Amino acid sequence: MDNQKLAEFITGLGRFNDYGSTVAQTQKALEDKCTSHLNQENDDVVIFSDCLKAINKVLNLEFDINSIILINAQFDGDSDEQPKNPGRLRDGLKYPHTDKIIVKLWPGDNGIVIHEPPVQVDEINLKKIVDIWTESEKTKVEAWQLFARLACLQPFQDGNKRTALIAANHALGTLKNQDYILPPTGRHFNQFMGDLLEYYFYSNTPDEDSALSSFATFATTYGKLNGN
Questions:
Q1: 3-14 and 44-58 are packed helices; what angle lies between their axes, rounded to 10 degrees?
Q2: Inside any domain, residue 227
Q3: What is the tally of structural domains in the chain?
Q4: Rounded distance, CA 117 to CA 157, Å?
């Protein structure tokens, strides 16, 4: 593995959770196998360690429903940003206090606009997303669409965007060749997140495909390995 590229991947993944360590610090932690090189004031050590566990767990497996679940199951580090039950699909009817999720999108005229993913998620939900990928041409654009569909579904209690990014790279084969897809940096990251939330808003509406296409096109253009 090229440690610089892997460090860039971990740093890119960490953008979803305010990862504060630099690529150089992350690369040093990889080379020395020592997390003391990382920023110790937030969740960097947990994000770093759990990302490595997830990659190693699925690296030589086929991309499927089980591999998606296995990725999230590795997010068991000590942090409030972790699922309380890693790898368990949400059941908001059985566990309403922990599994019923509402995603706040933006302020609206009548309060905060929200996205409400399915209350219950099962393997059928994941299979639909996996099947779309299987039947696709497996391009980077379609990998970003896979990421967005998984993130929008919110199949787990927490760590959904991290799970979706690792899963999309696993599906694309880039966990091995390290030609990773990553979210952009700087102001482009803000638009990336805005477009993702807009896709959440339009999911299950006639405008869903257009919102998904806009997100994936932008992500492919600006989500380069070395940022922008």
A1: 120
A2: no
A3: 1
A4: 12
Give a yes or no: residue 91 inside a domain: yes
Distance CA 166, CA 58 (A): 9
Return the CATH number at 217: 1.10.3290.10
For residue 175, give its domain range: 3-222
Entry pTM? 0.96
| Domain assignment of residue 228, yes or no | no
pLDDT in 10s for each residue of the chain, 228 residues: 899 999 999 999 999 999 999 999 999 999 999 999 999 988 999 999 999 999 999 999 999 999 999 999 999 999 888 999 999 999 999 999 999 999 999 999 999 999 999 999 999 999 999 999 999 999 999 999 999 999 999 999 999 999 999 999 999 999 999 999 999 998 999 999 999 999 999 999 999 999 999 999 999 999 864 443
Report yes or no: 89 and 160 within 8 Å, Cβ to Cβ.
no
Our CA angle for 150, 47, 163, nearest 5°, is: 10
